[in-house]
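Structure ticket #2291
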Amino acid sequence: MRWPMAQYLGEISYSIYMMQGLWLSLYWMGLDSWLVDRPGVIPGTWTLISLVMSLLFVNIVSAAWSYHNIEIPFQQKLRRINFKRLIHFQ
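Resolution: structure written out below.
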């Protein structure tokens, strides 16, 4: 796993996990509404492949954004907090 892209995906894996719930639910709602408007029509193989590939792309891009703009800043803020003093350990 020396490939830099694989290492980066491992770094942002938690963000990928968190974002996939959002995108999968939107995908299924969109696919459901698309099928309701077209009763009896089944999307073609290439349509489904392109939807899945675009879903994967959007998931990784949004996960990278949330990793750098949400996860890392909050990790840094949490590291600065002295929890022992907040909880009053003795």
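Closing remark: The mean pLDDT is 85.
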